[in-house]
Design goal:
13 strands, 31% helix
């Protein structure tokens, strides 16, 4: 990775290839997400949580795009096959950096998505941002703001003990059973047992809706298992 500050002089001729490609790192079976994205995510993917290696939030919500190894069940020969493209994928190859006390936009010059001859231009001839760049930067900003707000959301989940370990046994096409572990999910029973004061507090803090979205998203687990089994049969 070679992140540098994005500007319309040094990068005037850069173009962005907007397609997804497994060889570019888009085959990940899970991608990070934030509560602000849960509404879009829950319509297509299960939202689970994994313990965070660092940062202010002790857990990181992720959307499951596959079950095992680095395989994205929604990335096929015809491109992206779901109604929502996760922000973590869509913001590529841009990332947030720091310039003193200010947040700035960096671009990864080592990204294979960038080209001098193929794709959409990042900047207009007069130096303004292209529509493609403006959209990518809006996605990056939404993801960044979501990450800043994430610790408060995770603290609320832990305060009410709403996370429980997930253990999922998946029967494969061969008949063998593999266990998916290491993730946490919203504890539906504990959520249902919360007193009204706790529910009201979560609602006032803006946490209740994303909690409900994360819980509802788990209905996509059977579909993901079916996709995994179908992939194995055709492997």
């Amino acid at each position: 990775m070679r992140p540098v500050l994005l500007d319309n002089v040094n990068h005037a001729d850069l173009r962005l290839q907007t397609r997804l490609d497994a060889s570019w790192g888009d085959a990940a079976s899970a991608v990070p997400t934030v509560p602000a994205e849960f509404r879009q995510m829950q319509a297509h993917f299960p939202i689970v949580f994994q313990e965070s290696a660092g940062g202010a939030a002790r857990f990181q919500p992720v959307a499951l795009l596959g079950l095992f190894e680095s395989h994205n069940q929604f990335l096929g020969p015809q491109g992206w096959q779901a109604g929502h493209l996760p922000w973590a994928l869509e913001r590529q190859p841009f990332l947030v950096g720091r310039d003193g006390e200010e947040w700035v936009v960096h671009v990864d010059l080592d990204s294979p998505r960038l080209s001098r001859s193929e794709g959409e231009p990042l900047f207009l001839p007069q130096g303004g941002q292209s529509a493609v760049l403006e959209h990518r930067l809006s996605v990056l900003q939404a993801l960044h703001l979501g990450m800043l707000a994430l610790p408060e959301f995770i603290d609320a989940l832990l305060q009410h003990q709403l996370l429980e370990p997930m253990s999922l046994d998946v029967e494969q096409a061969s008949g063998q059973v593999r266990r998916l572990a290491g993730y946490f999910v919203i504890d539906e029973d504990r959520l249902a047992a919360l007193p009204g004061t706790a529910v009201a507090q979560l609602h006032e803090q803006g946490h209740w809706l994303p909690i409900a979205m994360a819980l509802a998203s788990l209905s996509h687990l059977p579909e993901l298992i079916a996709r995994e089994q179908q992939r194995e049969r055709h492997a």
